Structure formats: structure tokens, C-alpha cells
Task: structure prediction
Amino acid sequence: MSEFKWYVVRVISGQEKKVQDRVETELEREGLKDHVNQILVPMEKVVQLKNGKKVTKERNFYPGYIIVQAQLEAEVFYCFKNTNGIVEFLGEGDQPTPLRESEINRILGKVDDLQQKGEEREIPFYTGESVKVIDGPFNGFSGFIDEINEEQKKLKVIVKIFGRNTPVSLNYMQVEKET
Result:
């Protein structure tokens, strides 16, 4: 038996979890489950603000791809290839290329970091953008973004208070884009 190696499999984007389930079912049906150690769909948690409420969603970190640790013998390869939703293994032709140790460690390390980090917020703002304050003492005020601090997840927003431009430091969750 060959050793377990990591491979990247291109799948139909948006169907990564479904393809993972189909592959696991097919491997079990064919009696090849012991040839595949893991099938991963790397996900990250993203917090978004919808209608003034925090909503946590999971987002695929590598859309259109799953990562597989397997002994890729002919019957296992063809089981994958014949599963609905699989596009191809990354590699040349019908010869899948396993990931190098450094690549898989970086990917798995990235996945571990995302799970440890917990909630992450996309930065949907840009400097100069018009925003409305929805939380805190300046609730209801409108202004524009002067600075973005990604590390601290803070914005410096210039709001007009009593006719004067005043800089206010707010976190991402305290503002929303003006429409």
C-alpha cells in the first residue's frame, strides 16, 4: 500500500460540502473508506452586520476546492473522478500532484488559525466612504471614513457635530454603509 498524501481536488464552486458528503458515501459504498484519511473543506467564520444585528456565517476559505488526504491508488482515483461535482485533481492530466509538506502545513496552519481566531470580519469599508453610525453616543449621525485600522478593527469617522467636522473613533460594528 502506498502512503497517505495530500491532494487538492477542484469541485463545483458552492457545492464543496455536498461533494464531500457524496465522496464519503461513494467511498463507503465501494469499500474504499480506509484509503482516505481526511476530506477537508477549509472554512472561516465571518461576522457581518445585517439590519443592525451581528450575524455569524461560515465562508469557504478556498472556494471551488477540497483537500484530501488519501492513498491515491487507481480505484480510489476513479471513485473520486466519477463522483458528481468533482471537476479534477490538481496536477498534470490524469496524474494528480500531491502537495508538498510545507504547502499542507501552511494550509492546515491557516485553517487552525482561523478556527482559533474565531470570528473575523470582512473589511467592507474604504477611506472616503459615507457611513451612518448605528451604535453608541453618535447613533444616527452620518459621516465619512477618514482612516481604517484593520488590526484594531476601528474606523476614524468624521461627523458633523454642531456644524463642525469632528473625528470619532468607532469599531466596524458601530457603522453601516449609507445607501
